[in-house]
Amino acid sequence: MKKIAILMAAGATVLVSAAPVQAATQSAADPVHALQAKLKPGRGVYFVEKVSWSDGTDAREYGGNKGVFQFGRKGLSGYDITMEGGQEPERVIGIGKTVYRSGGVLSIVLKDKKKPWYKTTTGGGYPGGAAQIINAAEPKTLAALLRKGKRDKNSVTGTITVGDLKKVSPWVARIRNQDNGVKVGYTLWLTSGGLVSRLRSTWTTTENSETDAVTVDSRYTKWGAKVSIKAPAPSKVTTKLF
């Protein structure tokens, strides 16, 4: 599964009474408006994901992720994701531009077992590996997906490149420029209220004439729920890999 990690980070009387009805109708018809209504500080959304891959002849489930996004005044303020695709589960906590990682390869690399968390300040966003590359909690990203895709009742299907995603999505801003041409196919499903309930993305990477297709199927629940993402205890954190 080394190819999965190729995409790495380098809101007179008749008019007043009619307004609520109009707003509700707009929210149901406009997914971006519905999303913006949920983006309040201290609120967030939960998600679970299934990850699978195929090399063209063999297809199998790679693992699963689960996590939560937290919103701030300017969009996404943090996340807490556990990825269970490798021999050791990996957990990544992002708060602003600070990222804490634990488990996975780090469980082997970090010498001080009393400090299992590795801290970096190189920027948050997409943690790499088998995480969902499209962030459904970004209004500009959602608008781009709706614009580029074809809508059929409650679903939208389309294709977008990593380069085009980077133009609208802070989530993927740090992905290597050499991956800008990678095409990401997607289908998103909407609730009757216009919120994203599910997002499936697939991208293909080629290296040394070997091609792998990675699919991440995400399902979202509790949009607007109260969430609070916290950093690990300082005594458990290190900034040294070796």
Explain what the structure shows.
The chain contains 5 helices and 12 strands. The protein has 242 residues and is α+β, with helices and mostly antiparallel strands. Strands 7-8-9-10-11-1-2-3-4-5-6-12 form a 12-stranded mixed beta sheet. The two termini are 25 Å apart. The chain has helices at 13-29, 31-36, 106-109, 139-148, 162-168; strands at residues 43-54, 59-72, 75-83, 90-95, 98-103, 117-120, 150-152, 155-161, 183-190, 196-207, 210-226, 237-238. The chain is 18% helix and 41% strand. Mean pLDDT is 86; it is low at 1-6 and 10-28.
Question: In a few lines, what is going on in this structure?
Answer:
The chain is built from 5 helices and 12 strands.
Strand content: 35-45%
Unreliable runs: 1-6, 10-28
Look at the helices and sheets and give the structural class: alpha+beta
The proportion of residues forming helix, as a percent range, comes to 10-25%
Total strands: the figure is 12
Shape annotation: globular
Number of helices: 5
- Tell me the Rg in angstroms: 19 Å
Give the integer mean of the pLDDT values: 86
Q: Describe the biggest sheet? A: 12 strands, mixed
What letter string, H or E per element, gives the SSE order? HHEEEEEHEHEEHEEEE
N-to-C CA distance:
25 Å
Q: Strand arrangement, largest sheet?
A: 7-8-9-10-11-1-2-3-4-5-6-12
